[in-house]
Amino acid sequence: MTPTINPIDVNRLIADQKFGRYHALILLMCAAAMFADGFDTQAMGYVATGITRSMGLKQGALGPVFAATNAGTLLGALLLSPLADKFGRKPAILFCLAFFSVTNFATAYAPSFTALMVLRFLTGLGLGGLTPNALALAAEYMPERYRVSRVILVWYGFSIGSTVAGPIAAYLLHAYDWRAVFIFGSVPPAIFAVILIWVLPESVLFLLRRGGANATIAKNLNRLTGRNFSESDNFVGSEKRELGFPVTLLFKDGRAPLTALLWVMFFTNLMALYFMNAWLPTILANTGLDESTAILISTITHIGGIIGGQLIAFACDRWNGYRTLAGAYALSALFIAGIGASGSTTALTTFATFFAGFFTFGAQNAANALSATLYPTALRSSGTGWAVGVGRIAGIVSPAVGGMLLSLHWPSNDILYIAAFPAMIAVMAALSIGKVAGAKNASAKANT
């Protein structure tokens, strides 16, 4: 075989590919990893009553355990994503899967409340480190034309895992006890970790940046493109070489405004999202709806989010991604306020709630995928991980603010009007990112 003398721009080669079977395999493997994450994240809520009863605790005593899980997830996103930019996406994904498989299994045999809290914190570390790396690896293989609408499919692995957690946990709790849920939850990540060792490729863009892996790059590109590259080919990248610690690089080379705005966008939209997750059933019940109806209507936000996420992602691929998100955030604010304005009219409340989920949850799903395309390879996991991590702080702040407003006995419509306000800040942040990123890209093209 005659080697290619001319340089092969790997970034452009990947960007220009048509979507094929190898792309689908990568998405499936990353989504499988996220499935395990979603199951574990949701299952804890279903076993809380059983743990409380088994350990002889008071109702609500598991609050610190949930907080420990959230703290671990936050730190996992912040600490493990920079390591993945240094050592690779695939090792980070495998480590996280194996790690929270072990801690899940150990949780089933937690001898005390303190041990349970520590083990859930450790589990959170693995969960938090998995998400940005699965998104980053998928993004680095997807064609440019379909990047956001394909990467979002990885996130749906999490959604499916969260969905099946309910019926599986219900069966295991009926047949056994809460410990069986954690034992079962340790199995999928262990199985997926073993499968992914053999099936999941490392990012060729990461391998190219690290150097010394031409044989693996050629092999992976051959599977991706159907061509016949060899390790003697001259593979090059069109990205500028980045030197330094990945987190500090988020604020260098003109990226500081983008990074700060991305964090603001994630935090403010997630303020609205976590608020609805925590308090929407209670607020709807306070309007005069019966409790079961309030719960049923609240679940529609997740259905709307899945549908909205895919459609918003398609729009992001077709038009300016951040302007598209800005429009979605504006409509999110409108429909959250619309829930408050609909009073106790079931049909209007259901309509407003569906579209509040469509634009709030859907925009966040699309933003998770879009953020993985904002940064170069050297700091993609760090950029995504820190945006997700900063956004998770809203999961601590938002429920607390909502609880305070409810304790003050504010009218439900006023509380929802306030809940809509952060989405308007997200609108301004998204528009600003689009403007800054556009100017930065125009400058880069002018200098080439």
Description:
By secondary structure, the protein is mostly helical. The protein folds into 2 domains: 229 residues, Up-down Bundle (Growth Hormone, Chain: A), CATH 1.20.1250; 201 residues, Growth Hormone, Chain: A. Helices cover 79% and strands 1% of the residues. It is built from 18 helices and 2 strands. Strands 1-2 form a two-stranded parallel ribbon. α2 runs antiparallel to α7, α3 packs antiparallel against α4 and α12 packs antiparallel against α18. It is globular. The mean pLDDT is 87.
Report the C-alpha radius of gyration, rounded: 22 Å
Query: What would the average pLDDT be, to the nearest integer?
Result: 87
Helical residues, percent: over 70%
CATH architecture of the largest domain: Up-down Bundle
What name goes with the CATH superfamily of the largest domain? MFS general substrate transporter like domains
**In what range is the share of β-strand residues?**
under 5%
**CA-CA gap between termini:** 33 Å
- Ranges where pLDDT stays below 50 over 5 or more residues in a row are none
Total domain count: 2
**CATH-assigned fold name of the largest domain:** Growth Hormone, Chain: A
The top-level CATH class of the largest domain is Mainly Alpha
**Largest beta sheet: strand ordering:** 1-2
- Globally, the shape reads globular
